[in-house]
Amino acid sequence: MTKERKARWLARQSQELLDRIRAVDAAAYRRHIEAETPAQSQAHRERYAEAHHIRNRHWSEIVKVKGFATKQFTS
Question: Nearest to residue 32, comparing CAs of 44, 18, 21?
C-alpha cells in the first residue's frame, strides 16, 4: 500500500519539485560519504561486497533448484 501511495504522490508532483528533492537527497548522500573515515568506507565496501555475494549465491541456488530459464536471461 505504501509503494502505491508514494507512486500516486510522485505522479501528482511537478518535475521541478522532484528535481529539487533529488538534489537535496544527492547533497545529503554526498555529505554522508565525505564524512566517512577511510576505515568506515572500507567496512562499508566489505559489507556491500559480502551482501552482493550472498544475494548472487542465493539466486544461483534458486536457478539450479527450480530450473529457471526464460528467454530474457538466456542467450
Answer: 44
Residue 2 belongs to domain spanning: 1-35
Cβ neighbours of residue 10 under 8 Å, at least 6 residues apart? 18
Domain count, the chain: 2
Question: Does residue 28 share a domain with residue 56?
Answer: no
The tens digit of pLDDT for each residue in 43-61 reads: 999 999 999 999 998 888 8
DSSP string, 7-67: HHHHHHS-HHHHHHHHHHHHHHHHHHHHHS-HHHHHHHHHHHHHHHHHHHHHHHHHHHHHT
